[in-house]
Amino acid sequence: MSRGVSGMRSGQRLGRRFGWLWGAYGTSALGTWLAFGAFELIAIRVLHAGPAEVAALSAVGAAMGAAVAVPLGPWVEFRRKRPVMVAMDLVRCVALLTIPAAFALGALTFLQLLLVSVVVAAADIAFRSASGAYLKTLLPAEQLLVAGARLESTAWTTTIIGPPLGGAATGLLGPVATVVVDAASYLLSALGIRATGGHEPRPARRPAARLRAGDLLDGWRYILADATLRPLFFNTALFNGLVMAAQPLLAVLMLGRLGFTPWQYGLAFAAPSIGGLLGSRLARPLVTRFGQHRVLVVSGTLRALWSVGLAFFGPGTTGLLLVTGVELGLIFCCGVFNPVYATCRLERTTTDRVARTLSAWAVTTKASTALLTAVWGVLGALLGPRTAIGLAGVLLLATPLLLPHRAAPLRPEPEPAPHHA
């Protein structure tokens, strides 16, 4: 039940190599949040795009990126992960730098923004699948939750400080400048990952010489065959999709009908990120005391209870406090849940399947989020934003039914195949 808990102590050292990886992750995460919303701002302010084009930039870019990334999971699986991570960082850096270059030449188009968003989304999925596999080879099982909690706390820290700094930079220098910063963060991340050094185990050999069509589904087959991963997979895809689908409607409601200012809207979502930082720091002690499975189910259930409250807030200070309070509770529970679920997923996935499994997971999450965002956009137009937000909240109440309520035995790791000189 609590495998991966023993030996966890406050301030546990994870080594120099993890330190470089952690620093690279924090650098790229900060760059991403500094450039938060930059593509949409460029589309609106520079290219004078309308609402339909801006919506397409977010939804279509993510969906097409997920589709492009489908064959990348099997491709990543049979390669050393550190070079793949470096390559994906450099791909994102170069793709982003084409935007300021085209802007300087007066040649920037909406199609280029869309294509860059697709490339970045696909490279992001490949990077995530490679980094998860690399982390599992870098650290022993008992340290995975410690590492996951530190990465999660870093993610929430950059969420708190990134958007305000990025907003100030955008106001002074324009949104294209934050894209340059984001590109530079990926370059620094690549240098940090390269600096981790050390020996990486040789990956398993591909059973066939060429990638076959059936190989593209290996990640999904593995997930659906596992009694714990299967419900967790559906739970996270549906939860993330419904939460994200309601966000554009919430922006319309707050910034439109209810008359909140942009800084109030930003505050309502930036300040509660402190809850994610606190939750991620509590994840490890909670697992130590109560066990991984119990914390996974309880925190996964509690995070589903908050969003329905977003259908009932009104204008003024009271409404702002209600939104902030709901987001604080939601994000705190997510801060506990996320590192525990990420650790559980790594522990339950054998080393020779991690990249394919994480890739399939990320592709499904991005695709379901894009689909549900589009559906909720239609529902918002038909039913009104408040009703559509409330419907998403009600459906979220059912997501705990998809949590794994019993911990199944772990699969044995495969025997390493002999390598002949």
Describe this structure in words.
The chain is mainly alpha-helical. The model is unreliable at 1-10 (pLDDT under 50). It is globular and about 60 Å long. The chain contains 16 helices and no strands. It has helices at residues 16-34, 38-46, 51-69, 72-77, 81-104, 110-138, 144-173, 175-195, 218-225, 229-257, 262-270, 273-290, 292-302, 316-348, 354-383, 385-396. The chain starts with 15 loop residues before the first helix and ends in a 25-residue tail after the last helix. It is 73% helix and 0% strand. Helix 3 crosses helix 6 and helix 11 packs parallel to helix 14. The chain has two domains: 13-199, Up-down Bundle (Growth Hormone, Chain: A), CATH 1.20.1250; 217-408, Growth Hormone, Chain: A (Up-down Bundle), CATH 1.20.1250.20.
Please name the defining characteristics of this protein.
73% helix, 16 helices, 421 residues, Growth Hormone, Chain: A, mainly alpha, 2 domains
Short description:
The protein is mostly helical and 421 residues long. It contains 16 helices and no strands.
Outline the fold blueprint.
Layout lengths: L15 H19 L3 H9 L4 H19 L2 H6 L3 H24 L5 H29 L5 H30 L1 H21 L22 H8 L3 H29 L4 H9 L2 H18 L1 H11 L13 H33 L5 H30 L1 H12 L25
Helix pairs in contact: 1-7, 1-8, 2-3, 2-8, 3-6, 3-15, 5-6, 5-8, 6-15, 7-8, 7-12, 7-14, 9-15, 10-15, 10-16, 11-14, 12-13, 12-14, 13-14, 15-16
